[in-house]
Design goal:
Shape: globular
Structural class: alpha+beta
CATH superfamily of the largest domain: Butyryl-CoA Dehydrogenase, subunit A, domain 3
CATH class of the largest domain: Mainly Alpha
Distance between the termini: 14 Å
Helix content: 40-55%
Largest sheet: 4 strands, antiparallel
Order of helices and strands: HHEEHHHEEEEEEEHHHHHH
Strand order of the largest sheet: 4-5-9-8
Number of strands: 9
Strand content: 15-25%
Length: 378
């Protein structure tokens, strides 16, 4: 069992304090996720941005409860994310900052590219995007058809469609994956910035997690210079998909943390109105166990980042438990509760969306089975 040190407990407690602020933003962000300007002064959004930004690129230090926080570990990010999602996961995903793109930049980018990426975010009002998923590709990233065609020496053109891209329509800088050839090793990540010529971006209408502003991006010859391809300084085997896989291992645990945090929020709403709701003790124990599993999975990513088993288990458990708690909440308070309590209704909508983030249940089952066969599940 992972025992949190004092620094991490302080981060968790500050996240819990900020959660009430996010809960206050939740319905407004859900109703109009484009209108974020009134919320950008939020202390909670500031914490999310700083926590995801390497220390040397922060415009101010991150100091909480007498502790200075350097570059956050996966465990610290998961602890903070779970606490913040207890307020509103949709608002967490609506926060400007490095987000998923920042993880792949940290893994693949050269020093100049990292500087370019993080300096663009220093105003605290800039969104990023991570564009890998395609309309027909689903979780099969190796089957992507987006191309990075060579136009002339030193220049490439992006052709293809990316869909279900968080903050894709409003992001000012992001990472786009495409092929420079036919093999899996030809898949590369490119750093792109607005204005994006010959790129059509539009938000998609979604039911849950509307703050994530899922979007479609259609590239029809967007110019990308060779210096914007990430990983040129790395071996060929570690330039594209390897970086994406490393990113997914970290993000799966954070998605699980959002699911568990949302489940805890629904549990809080039920027990506040009905302290002795049938099954409440069992739900409480399962939420505690899920948090323990999350922390262990995040610690495993920190110490063995190539091990996929733990993060897949955490996502399987977290997303399934979130849905079960949503159904329990509706049974406990009655179906009318979703009509009279808009925040509960929103959380019920949101919790179903985590299934489709960073690999569906079937993909995670495959990862768990493969980990078990390799003997990494012990």
């Amino acid at each position: 069992m992972i025992e949190l040190d004092e620094r991490t407990r302080v981060l968790r407690d500050v996240g819990a304090e900020c959660a009430s602020e996010l809960a206050g933003l939740a319905l407004a962000v859900d109703a109009d996720p484009e209108d974020m300007a009134p919320h950008l002064g939020s202390e909670a959004l500031r914490l999310i941005r700083l926590m995801c930004t390497p220390e040397r690129f922060r415009e101010e230090p991150l100091r909480l409860g007498g502790f200075d926080y350097g570059d956050a570990s996966c465990l610290q990010r998961v602890v903070g994310t779970a606490a913040l999602a207890r307020g509103d996961a949709g608002s967490v995903l609506a926060a400007p900052g490095p987000a998923l793109a920042g993880i792949v930049v940290d893994v693949l980018a050269g020093e100049d590219q990292r500087e370019r990426f993080y300096r663009r975010l220093s105003d605290g009002r800039t969104w990023t995007f991570f564009a890998m998923t395609e309309p027909r590709g689903g979780n099969d990233a190796t089957g992507m058809v987006t191309r990075l065609d060579e136009k002339e020496p030193g220049t490439r053109e992006l052709h293809g469609t990316k869909r279900y891209i968080g903050n894709g329509a409003r992001g000012d800088i992001g990472v786009v994956f495409g092929r420079t050839g036919r093999s899996a090793l030809s898949i590369r990540a490119a750093l792109v910035e607005t204005p994006l010529a010959r790129c059509d971006r539009r938000p998609l209408d979604t039911v849950g997690l509307r703050g994530a502003r899922l979007s479609e991006l259609v590239f029809s010859g967007t110019t990308v210079d060779e210096g914007s391809l990430l990983g040129n300084h790395l071996p060929v085997s570690r330039r594209g998909m390897w970086g994406a896989v490393k990113t997914f291992l970290s993000m799966r645990v954070q998605v699980a943390a959002m699911a568990v945090g949302t489940a805890q929020a629904m549990f809080d709403q039920v027990t506040a109105q009905r302290p002795n709701a049938p099954g409440a003790d069992d739900v409480r124990l399962r939420l505690d166990a899920a948090l323990t599993l999350l922390y262990e999975a995040a610690d495993a990513v920190d110490h063995d980042p190539d091990r996929a088993y733990s993060s897949s288990v955490a996502k399987l458990v977290g997303t399934a438990l979130g849905v079960e708690v949503a159904r329990w909440a509706a049974r406990s308070l009655g179906p009318a509760s979703l009509l009279v309590d808009p925040l509960l209704e929103k959380r019920v909508r949101d919790v179903y969306a985590f299934e489709f983030m960073e690999g569906t249940t079937n993909i995670q089952r495959l990862q768990v089975a493969q980990g078990h066969l390799r003997g990494s599940g012990g």
